[in-house]
Each structure stands twice: as structure tokens, then as C-alpha cells.
Amino acid sequence: MKIRDTAGDRTFHVVNVAILSVFTILVLYPLIFVVSASFSSAEAIANQEVYLWPVGFNAEAYSTVLASPNLITGFVNSVFYTVVGALIGTVLTVLAGYAISRDDLPFRKSLTFFFLIPTLVSAGIVPTYIVVRQMGLLDTRWAILLPGAMSVFNVIITRTFYKMNVPNEMLEAARVDGASDFNFFFRVALPLSKPIIAVNLLFYGLAQWNGWFSAFLYTNSPDLAPIQLVLRELLAQSQVNPAMIGGGDVSEIIKRRELFDKLKYAMIVIAMIPPLIAYPFVQKHFVKGALIGSLK
Amino acid sequence: MSPNVFSSQLSRRNLFRGTAVGLGALAAGPTLAACSGGADDPNAPAGIDDVPKIELGPPRTDITYPEGYVGPRAHDRAPFGDGTTTFRVVVPQDATNVGDWATNATSAEMERRTGLKIEYVPVLVRGTDGSIDMTKINAMLASGDLPDAFLGIPFTTAQLSLYGQQGLFVALDDYIETYAPMTRQAMAEYPDLRGLKVSTDNKLYTMLGVNDCYHCRSSNNRAWVSQSYLDKVGGTMPETTDDLRELLLEFKNQNPSGKSGFLPFASSESTPIDTYFMNAFTYNPGNPGGNRTGGWLRLNGGTVEFVANTPEWREGLRYLHQLGQDGTLTRATFSMKDTELQQNGNKGLVGFARAYWWGSFFNPINLDMDEPWRDYVAVPPLKGPAGVQYTGWDYYGYYTDALQITSACASPELLVQWTDYMMDLEATMWTYAGIKDDNWSFDHSGKGINGKTSLFANKLFPAPAGQSWGQYAVMYRSSDFRLGEKVDPSAPTFEAGLYEAGQAYEAYAQPKEMQLPPLIISDADAAAVADTATAVTAAVKTGLAQFSLGELDPNNDADWQSYTDQFTAMGIDAYLQAHQAAYESRPA
């Protein structure tokens, strides 16, 4: 039998739907605008004629992107850095986080403090550059993957997660059953840590996907550049003001400006797609992992 | 003629010099001045011991130079590198114009012509707003990760001076004296060139390039008016400040565009308007910004002076205040974004614009003959009520970032020759325009931008990515060279139009003695001067807007007093003294 909603329930639903709709529009509109703008003509964008749907529909921007070797290489590189960086970071973080979560680890407090030092004092660009250089990593993919491979923030979250979800009692029970430390970690602790692994993968993956600074500082070869650095360069070149460079030829400046105006929205769409695809898969773990880990 | 012919016969430099000067005089006239001028001067560079001075052979005969031409010439020069060493050269990253430096067509051509193998290390030196970002260059220098040279990297003269005296960069005067005939020619033809880049210890830690853009000398002082709107309101080209005021009122009252949102006067936040208007009251250099010395400073009989607190400046503010009262100068003038200005231009809403060029208020912009930007003509400098009529003319803006050789380089003489070769006419054409005959050719069949016989013609400019070096090479693009570009009268390029615009201003250029040349502030004063410069810039800009928009009244003595007092509080006196000291102690 159907129970009729009371007036109060109905008001609640209306208000609820209205508020959520506003939020949905706030989130969705920029995405729709960017996609529409990426299919619009340069004139329409320059004159702000695009509001919701494409004006002067064409896919020229995308064909220019596809014809540009830098952007393709950058995209492939970024996927590589994201996947490998996420794996390296997650492995290191889970190992470190689990170890310092165990009460029976000797010097646990000192080790934790040691991890925290870099969050309090940072060495700065030049010393880090010297370290990377002396290790022979300059202009290699490792220079993008290894510095900053592990984030202390993530280690702390992971440590707390293990404290909450893998209590001492569980360890004792496993010991009674004859499990060694490695057995316990691989057969008990690790299977319980899917949420925190998902969170770590997402955090590290996103950081690599959005990162440009390591590549900018430590690499020179265009073949190693991630997409964000390629985009940054395109943006930087298009912003050069003729008054800033003596003797600039204006036709060269226009060329840069036109290319950028043409490509900017298509580039945002392309840079946006992989995180958008990845989010739904990790999202269900996200709330569990990040919140449980950080709050308690 | 190969210079090496002499090396076996004569080993002593001084003996050689006499011969070389004589031959040089026969071979290439313009170098004579440089050599004979330096001979009696005890400070003249001595050159490299025991190495015969390299002189240019006779210029190639297949190229006809316009009458009175000053600039690069083409010479046949044999490769001097044997390819055994590879030099690491840091270059700016630019995918749009240069593409991959390693596979670039000009890189290959330069290697073929000079025999020198170069490993290019591209570095991004611009931030996302187009400003200079030297983070990576600084990390390389500070960590001792030195390449052999830096090409086209925007070091300031203060940085060159600092790094040079720290021993990171090699002093090049003697190398230039011995190995760089084209550079010596450019230094003779542009006598101020060395002084613009020389360090406080009177040594040169950089090679010298020239990119002398005629219209850029007045680019901060140009304004444009729509000819068709001018005709519609029955106006004539304004000549005085009063004429302009009336014209703007006519624009406002009659709205010749017939559309709503018409701007009688348009400008954007990144465009200073004082450089145009204040020059009708007193010479105002404005704030050239970037790596140049402080803004609104000029010379008065050798004394450094601040302009923006003078009585003449107040007169100018009174005029702008009037425009504000008329409602033709509005808040939008000071706050409009560059893109908004372009949108207004596209819609035909701009009457009179203070802007660098047409592309500042049209986007996209192209060369079709019926394009609306062609309707906008340059407005010559205005004559003020006291008869003052200046345009801020930049006498010192033609140097390039060129090339610096570091202490890590084992054979600086080869890189000096490499750099010098880039100043050859044909090499200059290659580096900036790309592949010969595909993109450009020598062409004497028409008229150049300056109306003389043309020197070359561009078929495809800018060159597609991967063919040229953009503007990063050590060029010798003298004014005559740039203006020797052939113009197609049926479709004149922007450069041709800008040349004509520039001509409207040159007659009103301030005397050269009034412009403060670029200076290097001493290390002791540098931080304080930079702070004061920032405060002064903010105060002048804010004051200009507030007085113009009526928030302050230039006729009110209290307002004016508090405006000028703030400069005293900022330490303008110490600021002027630091500049005066730097001006007086600068190496001549």
C-alpha cells in the first residue's frame, strides 16, 4: 500500500531537489561550457558568444591537437608517470605506514618524527636540484618519479588507517595461529587495506597527472615532458605581450596567440578526461579511506 | 678569403694587427672605424695573444644593398669547427616557433655552415602570464650544472654583471677583438651597443646582438583613432590636447558606431595612458618595465629627475581630470582586461584607443584588406597648452639577449666565432625566418618597408615550427635590415603599417640626452631601490586613476600635497641618488 507523503515530506523533497540541482548545475556548467567552447570557432570564443552550446561548430581544435607531436607525447608520458608514480608511491606509503603503525616497532616515535622533518623544513630548489644532479637523475624519467615519490601526509593517513583497522588483538590472534610478520602483513593486513590503497593510488596518480614542476626543473628533453608542462609552455608563449620584448615581430606574437586561443579549451578537455574516468572507480573507497584515516 | 692564411706567416699579434687593419679597410669599410678608433685607446681590448685577428673577406657580390645601408652583410666564410667537440648550449623552449631545437632546420644549417656541433638544452623561461621565470636557470647556475653557453636567455644586465664577476661567465672583449669581425662591425655601427650590456667592472660578459625595431621605439606612446568614426562626427585629426578633448566629447555625444556600449576612449589595465598624455605637458619616459631601470625617471642636464611629482605632471592630471568630468575617460579605461578590450574592438565599439598596436584591440586579426583594423590610424603626439609636444622615444631598446659563455667552456673562441657567424646577413635571415627560398629569399625587385629598394622578401612568416629559431638567435637585425623587407603594395603587412605609424612620432622624439639609459644599480642599493620602485609604480598608477576619475582633485592643493608627500615617504631621494650614482659610475 502506498503511503502518501505528508506536506512536510513534500516540502523537504522540493527543497532538497532544488538545492541539489543548484549544486549539480554549479559543477556541471563549467564542464559543459569547456566542452562546447572546444567545439566552437575562435571568433565566437573571442567575442564571448558561447554560453551553453557550441557556436560555429567545428572540431579543428582537436585535429590540431592530434597533429601536434608534443601534445601526444605529453599525454602518453603523463599516463606513464601517473601509473608508475602511483604504484611507487603507494607501495612505499603502505610499507612505511604499516610499519610505523605497529606498537612493537623499536624507535617508532623517532622514525615517525624523522618522516615529519621534511614537512617542517624544506630544503628548497637549489639543494634538491644538486641532489638530483649528483644522483645522475637529471634528464631521466626517474627525476620526475623519484623526488617526492612518497608524501608524508599520505603516510600519516595510512598509519592511522592501520591503527584503526588492524588492531593489536588481530596480530596476537594471528601469532597464536603461527603467522610470521610477513605472513600477517600479506595475508591479513594487506587484504584489509583496499580502501587506503585506492586512496593512495588516487592521491599519487592525481599529483603526477597535475604535476609539471619536477619535469620543468629536472628534465630538458621534450620527449620526457608530461602534458601539463607542454600546456604550460603553450600558455606561457601565448601570453607574451609585444610591449615586453623589444623588437618583437607582431606576426609571431599573433601566431602564438591564435594557436593558444584555438587550443585552450580542447586542451582542458583532454587534460580533464583521465581523472574523470578514474574517479568513479576509486570514489567508493575514497570516503572510507581518507576520512577514517585522517579523522580518528 | 680565409683569415687562417696569415697564421703561419705571423705569430705576433701586434705585427699582425697593422696588416689586418690595412686589409680590413680594403675589404670591409665599416670595420675601419672600430679598429682605428681602438688603436690609440689604452682601454681598448687587446685581443687574444698570439692569435691573428680574424677579418671579414669582401662581401658577397650577388646581393645588392639599399642606398646608405647600415647592417649585416653576407660573406662567404669557411667552417671553423671540426666537429670533435660538442658544445652544450641552453636555449629557451618554444614549441610554437622553434619546435625541437635538436632537429630544427636552422640548427642543421648552422652546423653545416660553421662545422660546430651543438647539443641544445631547452629550458622554459616564461611563467604562465608571460613574465620571465628564471627558476631553472638559477638552479643550474647555483648548483654548478653549467652548460658551455646560454643563448637567448633573458638575463638582466645586473645578473650578467653579478655572474660575470663571480667568474661564472667569461669576459669576452678580447675574444671579440680577435675572433668576431661581424660583432665588431655592429659595435662600430651601433656605438651605444656595448654600453647597454657592459658590467660595472667595465667588462663584457655577453656577446652582442641587435634587433632594432623602428616602430618599437615609440610603441609605448602610440594612440589610434578610427578614421571612419572621425569622419562620421565631422572631426579632423586632433593636434592639441583641446582638440582631442572635443573629439572625445563628439564621440560620446554622437556615438558614431550606433551601438550601445561605445567607448569614446579605450585602453586596458596593462596599457599605461600617461605615456601618451603627459608628453603634451613634459617629457615622460613612463615606466618601460621589465628589466629596465625605474619608471618615470629622466635626465635633465645629467641629473636624474623624477617626473610624476612635477608641476607639469599636475597640469597633465588637470587635463585628465577634465576628461574624467566629461565622462569620456571612465573607470573602464583603467580596469578593462586585455581580452575585454579585444572584444570591444571586434564589435566596433572603440573610437580612440591608447594601445600598442591594432592587435591590442582586435582578436583574431589578419591581413585581409577589408579588415576593420585598417580603419584605425595613428594619432600623432598632442601639443599641450604650453606648447609642449614630445613622444617618449626609446633610443636604447635594440639589444638582444644574445649569448653568454660560461667558465665550463673549454674553447670559448669557437663559440665566439659561432655567435659572430649568426650576425652574418644570411645567417640572420635563417635564424629568424627559416629555410632559404622556401620561406624567404633575397629580392631586390620591389620596395622595402622604408621605401628604398628591398633587400629580401618573406614568403612565409613566421616560419612553421621546426624551421627557424624565432627571435632567440644572436641577430644583427639593424633598422635598415628590418625595413628592407619587401612590401606587397596590395597587402601591406603589420610591420609596414607600424613603420608608417612610427614615422608620425619620430619628429617629436625627446632629445637623446633626456633619456636615462639602462643602468645597473649597485648591489648595496639594489634591494632598497627595487622596493621603492614597486611602491612608486603603485603610487603613480593609483594617483593617475584617482585624479582622472575625480576621487582626488588636482586643483585641490591638499590632495596634490598628499600625493607628492607619499613619494618622499617612500624614499624617493635615496632612490634618485642611487640612480644618479649608477649613472655617473657607469662604464663609458
If you had to describe this structure to a student in words, what would you say it looks like?
- Chain A: It is a multi-pass membrane protein.
- Chain A: One of its GO terms (cellular component) is plasma membrane.
- Chain A: It comes from Desertihabitans brevis.
- Chain A: Pfam families: BPD_transp_1.
- Chain A: This is Carbohydrate ABC transporter permease.
- The complex is a heterodimer of chains A (296) and B (588).
- With 296 residues, chain A is an all-alpha fold.
- Chain A folds into 2 domains: 7-47; 60-294, MetI-like fold (Orthogonal Bundle).
- Chain A is 74% helix and 0% strand.
- Chain A is built from 14 helices and no strands.
- The radius of gyration of chain A is 25 Å and the shape is flat.
- Chain B is of the alpha/beta class.
- Chain B contains 21 helices and 14 strands.
- In chain B, strands 2-1-3-11 form a 4-stranded mixed beta sheet, with helices on one face.
- Chain B is globular.
- The relative contact order of chain B is 0.15.
- Classes of the chains: A mainly alpha (296), B alpha/beta (588).
- Chains A and B meet through helix 2, helix 6, helix 13 and helix 14 of A and strand 2, helix 4, helix 14 and helix 18 of B.
